[in-house]
């Protein structure tokens, strides 16, 4: 009797301490409680609460796992108590995940999957369905982390089925929404457009119904998935969290499908004249509606969460949708949508800077040391298990933001500033090899782009090869393959330019073509591999599925290889296809300029001799390159204009039309001078980047010796 009274007193005191915000004192009470001889149900609850406090407020994950294993063993003797059993399994899986015990985590999910069968018909059935849905979502996430997409898809489908069987209520509604979000996320990751589209359509209906219910409860008007309101059964915070994730996934899906123009289009009236690039990017001009909607939803969510307790937010967080990393994610998605067009660099830079500032806050929350080793944080080796996941999320976001910023600077020719961002990305990977190991291919890709911009084509090809060989998916492999092929072809161009310079002013441009393709062509075709348009697929193999950007880039690179082999009709067909996608759907100005410049050179070839089409392509490339601030593309287009005018002038002189010949010669000289001015600016930018030979050499040669030794 005395022992029973002692146990009851410890339970009351522990609950009081926890309610008063003293979790460590509550933990000590539960520690004393589990040392007593207790009935099985009391012991299970005590060990569950003790482990929960350990996981939330200490770094003693192994001891928490031991308590949960003991609680799981004791719970088998309980009749009913299904929710307690599921909660034990949920906490145990968390501890096992933190300890890196994948086999134990999956075994926990398998054991929990047997509970619902005996719970059918009980009074806890609706709650059991909610718990089963949550654990199946976590199981799907575990399979996804381990690279098992089919198992992840199956578990996510089962989770949605349980959410449907759970009936009404806030918990069931939230689990259904998160199960659909998970399905959409997994579908995007495995490039299953049909499944992603179906999940996003279902989400639109569910969130629209929640918004309409909330509006009806408050007496307001209806709303769709983009509306606000109280969120109905989801509650305001739950609704906004789901809505923001839905909007992020929808924008990513549109970018993947090549609908970039739809994401960044403005909602101005059709009769209003378009703004100039300077006017469109002026301060005070609002972002495109899709981007502005993302940002507005995040701000609403941040305001709603400011009054919620952190423990309540953590308890309600679905499988892997942490709320604290949403601001840098929103900024990254906005920058990814805006950067291809190149028309709003100020707004893009503002999103990137804001995202990087938010990431620094995430790193401090995760306990990471600052870049200079100060700030009182820890290196990745010293991080507690609970902090590894948020630290990895923050670092991956930081690396992607740095990559996006560096690529924007490279496109604008600001090579010295781009070099510093490349060095920051490299240093980040060096400081966190465990957490950022899978991101090394992306860092090599960025380094290769810097090398290509500064004329280090051999180093660029080596970095792109490393990115291609270790690419995590077909899309990343395609981008790396295209860039590697371009680097090999650029080495041939550099050799031909050097030969032309050595030959002096009597060198004729056609001599290089007569000499045939250089050694880089074979390497370029090898680098493209299955993405080369002329490649023969292996028997029984399907061509790799690519997005609009990757498909257009592969077509551009394949066309360059085909043109070098003299197959201009096939090359032009590919270029026309790439132009339609790059201009009408992607709005990717760099890609458009590359296609137009190649088309101009193709039309100038002896096989076609279509000066009018060549001039139109070159002038269009000049306009797009100027709008995007791409000096390289603008210089190439000016050279193409000069070549057209020289040909036109020669034809006019041969026909005795001296007026047209002089006019064409003057236009050619003007184009050559304009190209020379832009090439001089590029040379100045390259010289500025190489002025600090130590920093440039380190950036360009990063990990090259390790690749050679490997």
Q: Could you explain the architecture of this structure?
A:
With 710 residues, this protein is an all-alpha fold. The chain starts with a helix and ends with a helix. It has helices spanning 2-19, 23-34, 40-57, 61-75, 82-98, 102-113, 115-119, 125-145, 149-165, 170-189, 193-218, 235-256, 260-264, 277-280, 289-305, 310-316, 326-338, 345-365, 385-411, 415-431, 440-453, 457-469, 474-503, 510-514, 520-528, 548-564, 568-586, 589-603, 611-628, 631-654, 658-691, 693-700, 704-709. 74% of the residues lie in helices and 0% in strands. It contains 33 helices and no strands. 46% of the residues are buried. It is elongated, with a radius of gyration of 30 Å. Among the domains are: 1-123, Tetratricopeptide repeat domain (Serine Threonine Protein Phosphatase 5, Tetratricopeptide repeat, Alpha Horseshoe), CATH 1.25.40.10; 319-373 and 386-411, no CATH class; 412-504 and 516-534 and 548-709, Alpha Horseshoe (Serine Threonine Protein Phosphatase 5, Tetratricopeptide repeat), CATH 1.25.40.10. Its main location: nucleus. It is found in: Nucleus.
């Amino acid at each position: 009797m005395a022992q029973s009274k002692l146990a009851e007193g410890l339970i009351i005191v522990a609950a009081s301490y926890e309610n008063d915000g003293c979790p460590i004192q509550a933990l000590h009470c539960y520690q004393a409680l589990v040392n007593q001889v207790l009935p099985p149900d009391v012991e299970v609850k005590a060990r569950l609460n003790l482990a929960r406090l350990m996981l939330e407020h200490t770094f003693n994950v192994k001891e928490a796992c031991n308590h949960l294993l003991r609680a799981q063993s004791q719970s088998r003797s309980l009749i009913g108590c299904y929710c307690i059993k599921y909660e034990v399994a949920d906490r145990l899986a968390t501890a096992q995940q933190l300890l890196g015990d994948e086999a134990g985590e999956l075994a926990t999910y398998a054991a929990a999957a047997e509970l619902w069968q005996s719970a059918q018909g009980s009074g806890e059935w609706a709650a059991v369905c909610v718990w089963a849905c949550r654990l199946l979502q976590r199981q799907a996430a575990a399979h996804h982390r381990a690279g098992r997409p089919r198992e992840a898809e199956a578990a996510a489908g089962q989770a949605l089925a349980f959410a449907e069987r759970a009936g009404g209520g806030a918990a069931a509604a939230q689990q259904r929404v998160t199960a659909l979000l998970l399905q959409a996320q997994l579908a995007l990751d495995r490039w299953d457009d049909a499944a992603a589209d179906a999940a996003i359509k279902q989400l639109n209906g569910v969130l629209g119904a929640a918004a309409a219910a909330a509006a009806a409860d408050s007496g307001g008007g209806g709303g769709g998935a983009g509306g606000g309101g109280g969120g109905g059964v989801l509650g305001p915070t739950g609704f906004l969290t789901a809505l923001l994730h839905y909007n992020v996934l929808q924008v990513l899906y549109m970018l993947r499908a090549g609908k970039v123009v739809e994401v960044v289009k403005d909602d101005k009236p059709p009769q209003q004249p378009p703004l100039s690039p300077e006017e469109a990017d002026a301060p005070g001009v609002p972002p495109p509606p899709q981007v502005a909607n993302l940002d507005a939803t995040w701000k609403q969510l941040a305001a709603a969460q400011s009054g919620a307790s952190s423990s309540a937010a953590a308890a309600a967080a679905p499988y892997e949708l942490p709320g604290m990393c949403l601001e840098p994610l929103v900024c990254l998605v906005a920058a990814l949508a805006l950067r291809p067009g190149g028309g709003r660099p100020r707004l893009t830079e503002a999103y990137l800077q804001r995202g990087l500032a938010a990431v620094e806050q995430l790193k401090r929350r995760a306990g990471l040391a600052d870049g200079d080793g100060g700030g009182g944080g820890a290196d990745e080796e010293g991080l507690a298990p609970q902090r590894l996941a948020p630290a990895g999320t923050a670092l991956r976001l930081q690396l992607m933001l740095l990559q996006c910023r560096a690529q924007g600077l490279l496109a604008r020719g600001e090579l010295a500033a781009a070099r510093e961002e490349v060095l920051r990305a490299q240093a980040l990977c060096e400081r966190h090899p465990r957490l950022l190991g899978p991101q090394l291919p992306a860092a090599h890709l960025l380094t290769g782009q810097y090398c290509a911009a500064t004329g280090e084509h051999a180093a660029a090809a080596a970095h792109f090869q490393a990115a291609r060989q270790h690419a995590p998916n077909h899309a990343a492999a395609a981008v790396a393959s295209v860039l590697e092929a371009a680097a090999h072809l650029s080495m041939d161009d550099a050799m031909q330019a050097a030969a032309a310079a050595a030959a002096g002013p009597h060198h004729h441009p056609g001599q290089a073509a007569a000499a045939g393709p250089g050694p880089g062509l074979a390497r370029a075709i090898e680098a493209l591999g299955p993405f080369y348009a002329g490649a023969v697929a292996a028997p029984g193999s399907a061509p790799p599925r690519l997005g609009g950007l990757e498909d257009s880039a592969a077509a551009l690179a394949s066309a360059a290889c085909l043109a070098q082999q003299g197959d201009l009709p096939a090359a032009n067909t590919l270029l026309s296809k790439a132009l339609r996608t790059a201009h009408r759907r992607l709005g990717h100005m760099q890609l458009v300029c590359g296609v137009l410049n190649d088309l101009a050179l193709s039309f100038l070839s002896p096989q076609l001799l279509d000066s009018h089409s060549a001039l139109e392509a070159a002038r269009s490339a000049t306009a797009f390159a100027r709008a995007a601030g791409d000096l390289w593309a603008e210089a190439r287009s000016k050279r193409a204009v000069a070549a057209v005018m020289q040909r036109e002038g020669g034809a006019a002189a041969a026909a005795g039309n001296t007026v047209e010949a002089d006019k064409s010669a003057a236009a050619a000289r003007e184009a050559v001078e304009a190209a020379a001015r832009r090439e001089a600016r590029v040379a100045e930018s390259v010289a500025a980047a190489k002025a600090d030979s130590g920093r440039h050499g380190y950036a360009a040669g990063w990990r090259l010796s390790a690749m050679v030794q490997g």
